[in-house]
Every structure is written in structure tokens, then in C-alpha cells.
Amino acid sequence: MAIPQLDLKAEYDYLKKDISRNINACIKYQQWILGPSVKECEQSIAEYLKSRNVTGVASGTDALLLSLRAVALIKKGRAYFRSDDEIITTPFTFVATAEAIARAGAKPVFVDIDPDTYNLDPKALEKAVNKKTAGIMPVHLYGLACDMERISRVAKKNGLFIVEDCAQSFGGEYKGKKLGTFGDCGAFSFFPSKNLGSWGDAGCICTDSKKIADCLRSLRHHGQEKNGEVKNLGYNSRLDTIQAAVISAKLKYIDQFNRARKKVAKTYKQHLKGQKFITIPFEPLESSHSWALYTVRVKAKRDK
Ligand SMILES: *Cc1c(COP(=O)(O)O)cnc(C)c1O
Predict the structure, then answer these.
(1) CA quadruple 100, 103, 104, 109: dihedral sign
(2) Where are any strands of DSSP class E within the chain?
(3) How far apart are CA 278 and CA 294, in angstroms?
């Protein structure tokens, strides 16, 4: 029997009441743009991540792009990066990571991964840093934390910013601290198949910097300030009201769901470990895997 990789119907049956309650509240308020549902969603995510500010945006891709634009504006005083500004990232990620770097005006520089974790190799990262390097964009692939201690050390030593791509790692931790809270910004995706999925496209950015958060709120709203004045070229990239209602409902269950993923991963491990042709995921002690995907490596005959 074919087992679906993801069964959103089963999840919906379980969450029906919570989601309906939240959506009915939106219908009652009739505030469809940046209303109470978005505010509540942002606040509860901020509490969950223990971050000072969370800004909801239209997708995970926009979360990456707006993070980079805000960092350029606040830390470099420029609307976009220069074409020779280098931002180091991993080649082993979804295309959106490098796409965001290019759209923010900078040059994506790829550094190879650690073959055990599939994440950015900190040693190779250190070697790749040069005078043109502006920042680092680590990706916590499949839900596993990058080595944030070493990456942060390299960033600090060289005056580089960090934007974490947390699209696959909502709820994941490194040394007891939530992913997304190590860098200048943490960018999350609520694409339906992610650990915390909405009913369409949605994303958010967490940051401890009020300046960056204010800039993000302006950028997602056509670059408008609170008085309506347009200071920077922005986007229409607000978090949608209904998506916010769905995300708030699911957020209450994310730890429970991530624990269930952990249990499934443990079962896979029991049955797959010691098999000659299969390398199972590596689980470093310092990180709590959120198991967006359980990915194995095979020497040959992959499809079989
Ligand atoms: C899903 C994903 C994104 C993009 O998120 P969207 O919400 O689909 O725009 C970016 N980076 C990684 C690593 C992803 O897995």
C-alpha cells in the first residue's frame, strides 16, 4: 500500500474545531488586512520562539528577501546590496535561498555541506570568508540545526550578519534555544507541507532588533511608514488574515506534532540502522531535530 508522504486531511479532522473558531472570529471582525488575527498570530509566535518581534509576511521566500532588504537598509544604509557583496549559503537547499540573495542585489556564494548533517560546513565557511563577504545564510535543512555556535563565531569575528533560513525547522532547537533566534533575522515558511503549514502561502520573520522589525513592517506594506509616507521601494507582502487564523490554531499543537514526528523518526531508525546500503540521518546531541523530512542516503539503486 502506498503511504502518502503527508496527510493534511487527517490533520484537519483533528484541528477542525480550533481552526473554525479562529476563522469565524475573522469573519466576525471583517478586518482583512493586518487585523487582530495577524497581530495575535505574530505575538504568539514571538512568545513561542522567545523572540522580541515577529513580522508576518506573504511567504517563506518573501521572509528571506525582506530579511535581507531590512539588513541592507539598517546595517548597511543601502536599499539593496551591491552586486559584489557576497552572501554565503549552502548549495543544498531549496532554490528560494539563493534566489532571495540575488533579488536583494548580492552575489550568492556556495559553500559545501558537512556530509553528516547536510548543513553548511563551518570549516569550509571560515575558509570562504573574504573582504567582500557581507553575511551568512545558514539553512537548517530537513529540520536539523546548523552548528550555530561556530557559525556565529565566524560571523562575529568578521562583522557579518546572519539570516537563518528556518523554512524547514519550525520548533527546532540548538542547545535549548529556538532556531531563528541566533541570527539578525530568522525566516520561516508556512507553506502547507512544512511542519507548521497554513492553507496557502505564508511566512514570518523573527528578530530581536526593533529597528529591523520596524523596517520589515514597512517593507511588507509597500515601504510605507506609519504616517503613510513611502520611504523605500517595498512589496505587497502582508501575512493573510485567514492564514494567520490557521497558523494560530496549529501553533498550539506544534510541540505535540513535532514530538509525534520524533517518535516516527525513532521507529525508522530502529528498522533502518545497520542496513548496509542506507545511511540514516545524523542526530547531534546539541540539537533538537524537528524532522521536517526523514531523509536517508543510499549508495546505489536509489529509486529501488
Ligand atoms: C520551503 C522553503 C523555502 C520557501 O518557502 P515558501 O513559503 O515556499 O516561499 C525557502 N527555503 C527553504 C529551505 C524551504 O524549504
Answers:
(1) positive
(2) 53-57, 86-89, 107-110, 133-137, 161-165, 173-174, 177-178, 185-189, 203-207, 278-279, 287-288, 297-298
(3) 12
Cα distance between residue 291 and residue 214, in whole Å: 32
C-alpha cell belonging to residue 136:
551568512
CA 173 / ligand 1 centre spacing (Å)? 19
Q: Decide: pTM greater than 0.90.
A: yes
Ligand 1 atom closest to Cα of residue 202: 7
Beta-bridge partner residues of 163:
185
CA 128 vs CA 45, 71, 131, 236: distances in Å: 34, 21, 10, 35
User: Is the pLDDT score of 48 beyond 80?
Assistant: yes
What is the percent of the chain where pLDDT is above 70? 100
Contacts of 294 by beta carbon, 8 Å cutoff, 6+ apart:
142, 264, 265, 268, 281
Ligand 1 residue neighbourhood (C-beta within 6 Å): 59-61, 93-94, 96-97, 139, 165, 167-168, 189, 191, 201, 203
Nearest residue to 64 via CA among 213, 203, 169? 203
